[in-house]
Design a protein that fits this description.
The chain has 168 residues and is α+β, with helices and mostly antiparallel strands. Helix content is 27%, strand content 34%. Strand 5, helix 3 and strand 6 form a beta-alpha-beta unit.
Length: 168
């Protein structure tokens, strides 16, 4: 099922047969440079749990980003509850390196903000990046998130971005 479409992207539920595409995405050291480190087994569990959750929830989840033009795999994105804050979702994503710098991440992020905030129980969407990840910080700002005070997560200081329902 499609979660969102943009002029160039289809953001949709992964299919069970796409597990290898998802896993291979994390073989590129530059792609995983700024995302949480996970073992292959942990990534398999994340993917399979994501498939199971599709039936229960359409607001949060893990989705694939694909090219509208040729169906090529561009990356993955997610919306998940942010800690225990009611009504707050966290946006995360990673793109194949060949799609960096072309505006795809911004297009995806804007679509995911709209998707998350289409649920009336959601008031805010947030995102975090490592302080050195300037590229993702620009993406988040272009998509409509505002930088606020840095966040401390698991002992690491992170750039913190937020948008409220009324601000987009």
């Amino acid at each position: 099922m499609d979660i969102a479409q943009t002029p160039r992207l289809i953001i949709r539920e992964f299919l069970p047969g796409e597990e290898d595409i998802y896993l291979n995405h994390f073989n590129d050291e530059l792609v995983i440079q700024y995302i949480p480190k996970r073992s292959r087994e942990e990534r398999i569990n994340i993917f399979r749990k994501g498939l199971e959750q599709y039936a229960a929830n359409k607001t949060t989840g893990l989705w694939g980003i694909f090219s509208k033009a040729d169906g090529d795999f561009i990356g993955s994105c997610l919306l998940r509850p942010f800690y225990d804050e009611a009504g707050v979702l966290e946006l995360g994503y990673s793109l194949e390196r060949k799609y960096w710098g072309g505006g795809f991440a911004t297009e995806m992020a804007a679509a995911m903000l709209a998707h998350g905030l289409s649920d009336r129980s959601i008031s805010d969407v947030v995102a975090v990046t490592e302080l050195e990840n300037i590229g993702s910080q620009r993406v988040l700002e272009k998509a409509g998130l505002k930088r606020v005070d840095n966040l401390l997560r698991d002992g690491e200081e992170l750039a913190y971005f937020k948008t409220r329902r009324n601000s987009i």
